[in-house]
User: Which sequence fits this backbone?
């Protein structure tokens, strides 16, 4: 029987396959060697150790998937999610739900109390920031004015207590009450401008050659003098009281409707040691007038006479409520 010409080739291929299976695998991967078969198709390569391990893992995963499908859709989704959870899911699982311990709650409460205390401290500090930027001379002047006001209040208190004791100890209480009423009327008349007054004080002369002085500047001077303890004020023959008002400017300056012209002469009764520094403080009345090209001169005097009077007004509606 003649020998088949294909047998030697098959035998040679079989021997090469046995050699390739017995030879150790190289670390560097190589592609499959091309081989020809009878029908022109590439025969399936024999699985190596790594391929068998991969197929084993695939079989295990397939078995797990089959078991999950048998158990139900929820189990199948759990298996598929547990097979490879993403980083976002792990982070979300670690952060929620939050796990808060008792020590963390105590620390949070202490931090809240500390922040509240700091906020209150900053608020109180900002309220006193206006005095922090003041100069030493201004702070001393403010302190002196507070001391003077305190002293005036103490004197008023002592005087009222003395009047009460005199009324209680006097044998003729009616006569004593009449004297005190007259004294009170005189004091109120000075404040209301219906009675002339004299005493120590200052004279403030404001020159306005350029006509730049406004009515609000004169009103600021009046306010500064009252805050420093002025008891009676007269400007160019017009008595200035609590309800006085200033209007106009330059050549049409008016006080309570009465026209006044520069220079404006303020006659003020009060303590000179308090009145003069109140006008000369940095940024005060004198500096403001000088910025407007006006002149301001302050002179102390042991006796100032305020003799301009205002007519007493009888109230139309208000009546005394004392019996």
Assistant:
């Amino acid at each position: 029987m003649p020998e088949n010409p294909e047998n030697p080739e098959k035998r040679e291929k079989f021997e090469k396959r046995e050699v390739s299976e017995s030879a150790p695998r190289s670390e560097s991967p190589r592609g499959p060697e091309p081989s020809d078969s009878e029908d022109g198709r590439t025969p399936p390569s024999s699985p190596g150790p790594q391929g068998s391990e991969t197929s084993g893992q695939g079989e295990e995963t397939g078995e797990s998937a089959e078991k999950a499908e048998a158990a139900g859709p929820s189990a199948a989704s759990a298996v598929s999610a547990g097979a490879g959870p993403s980083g976002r899911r792990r982070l979300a699982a670690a952060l929620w739900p939050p796990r808060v311990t008792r020590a963390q709650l105590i620390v949070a409460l202490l931090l809240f109390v500390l922040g509240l205390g700091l906020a209150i401290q900053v608020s109180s500090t900002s309220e006193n920031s206006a005095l922090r930027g003041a100069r030493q001379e201004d702070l001393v002047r403010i302190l002196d004015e507070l001391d003077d006001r305190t002293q005036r209040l103490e004197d008023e208190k002592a005087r009222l207590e003395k009047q009460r004791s005199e009324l209680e100890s006097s044998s003729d209480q009616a006569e004593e009450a009449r004297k005190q009423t007259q004294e009170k009327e005189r004091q109120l008349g000075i404040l209301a401008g219906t009675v002339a007054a004299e005493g120590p004080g200052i004279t403030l002369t404001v020159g306005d050659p350029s006509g730049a002085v406004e009515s609000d500047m004169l009103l600021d001077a009046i306010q500064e003098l009252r805050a420093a303890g002025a008891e009676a004020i007269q400007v160019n023959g017009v008595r200035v009281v609590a309800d006085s008002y200033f209007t106009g400017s330059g050549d049409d300056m008016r006080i309570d409707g009465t026209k006044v012209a520069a220079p404006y002469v303020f006659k003020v009764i009060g303590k000179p040691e308090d009145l003069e520094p109140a006008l000369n403080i940095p940024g005060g009345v004198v500096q403001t007038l000088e910025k407007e090209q006006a002149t301001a001169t302050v002179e102390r005097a042991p006796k100032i006479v305020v003799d301009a009077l205002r007519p007493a007004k009888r109230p139309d509606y208000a009546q005394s409520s004392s019996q």
In short: The radius of gyration is 53 Å. Residues 1-6, 26-62, 68-83 have pLDDT under 50 and may be disordered. The first helix runs from residue 6 to 22. The beta strands are 197-207, 232-235, 238-240, 246-247, 253-255, 258-260, 264-269, 295-306.
